[in-house]
Each structure stands twice: as C-alpha cells, then as structure tokens.
Write a structure and sequence with these properties.
transcription, 46% helix
Length: 99
Amino acid sequence: MVHVSRLPGAYDHNWSWQLRGSCREGAAGLFFHPSGERGAAHDERDEAAKAVCAGCPVRTECRRYALAAREPYGVWGGLTEDERHRLLSRGLHRQAALA
C-alpha cells in the first residue's frame, strides 16, 4: 500500500513531471504485471519496461517518487517492486533515488 503521508501533496509542480514520462506513450500494462505472471514472461516484461525508463527524461523524479511513497507495484524509474524493496530494506533508497 502506498504511504499517503509520504506524498508531496496536490500541488501541480509536485506532479507535473509525470506528464513528461516516456511511459505515457506506450501500454501501461508493460509496467504492471498481470496476476500470476512468472518466469521468463515476467522477466521479459520487466526488462522491456526498464528499457523505456532508461531513456526517460523524468526517470530520477519517478524513481524518487516511487521510493518515497513506497510504491508497492510496477516498474517506476527503472526499478521493479523487488528492487525498490531491497533498496529500502537496506537503507540505500536515498542514493538510488539520485541514480
């Protein structure tokens, strides 16, 4: 569950970065796996989503948001939910948010 208390609020300047995201051009399903997806299909979808993120002009903002909000699902800023969870559990989220 997203921790709403960590979100920056409803001010447009806090969220306008989302309008410039490369993910807005493609299928949203690429960034969120269907229920029960496993194995090669799961890994290939994650890699395809991360490839979109790699060239995204707002990747840093997206990653920063996902780590701060503890976004539980999907690929955000080039990180999967498992990668974000590992960074957060190791206390490395501040460094990763800037990468």
